Protein: MORN repeat-containing protein 5
Amino acid sequence: RMEGYGYYALPTGAEYRGELWDGMFHGKGELLLPTGGSYRALWERGVPTQGKYTFADGLEYDEEKWRYCDGYDRRFYTEICSGFKPPGIPQLTNLDPPKIIPEGCYDCGDGFYDPKTRVVVDYKRKFLRNADDEEHEWILRTCRKAWVITAEHKPK
Structure:
């Protein structure tokens, strides 16, 4: 069994770095996620007892003082840190410029979703999961879609 300090790569692409005991996360450790976020916690026999999640852009989640995108303040974290863009220049996602979505697909936050195959892939096009009916409907209803836009005006 693994014991001491070590690294453990999970099949999901996540990686644990920290203390291990009897093959379990135990003590101080950090779970690094493929999306770029991380969860640093104090673990007890594989279960986190205290911890903090940090998004890929550095935003730390705080359950008690969470004010980000709460209905009253709809700014992205990068807008909170750097201010708004000039009028007429929209910021569509926290990542600026946003990822270019493949034709016919949606950006569902952790990757791209193809409604024809019902598959979600990460931003490097690596398989993440198959979407069930509930996720499929949510993505179609709420997520950004690749648009087919003519960039220039064609006179008649």
